[in-house]
Design a protein that fits this description.
49% of the residues lie in helices and 13% in strands. The chain is α+β, with helices and mostly antiparallel strands. Helix 1 packs across helix 2.
């Protein structure tokens, strides 16, 4: 067996409930519902449904980058003009 990052401590896949709990703080049912919607990336091996760790972490990194970009764009926008009601 190769000695690389695929060890007992760093598996390449996790069960859907493990991903839900570890990355999103959600329970078993919500995890499977998210996987069914495509919110959690999965691969199927026969009847076994697993989530590739690298795909989950990439998805979260991309979502974080998109959120950061949206936040930066919003902070660059000018505030709306005041109505002048004097209130």
């Amino acid at each position: 067996m190769r000695n690389d990052d695929t060890t007992e401590n760093h598996p390449r896949t996790l069960s859907v409930p493990e991903v839900g709990r570890k990355y999103f703080g959600i329970g078993r049912g919500a995890s499977y519902a998210a996987a069914a919607r495509g919110d959690i990336p999965t691969i199927r091996l026969g009847r076994l449904l697993r989530a590739p760790v690298v795909a989950v972490e990439r998805m979260l990194a991309e979502a974080g980058q998109a959120a950061l970009t949206r936040h930066e764009s919003a902070s660059d926008a000018k505030p709306p003009p005041r109505s002048g009601t004097g209130v």
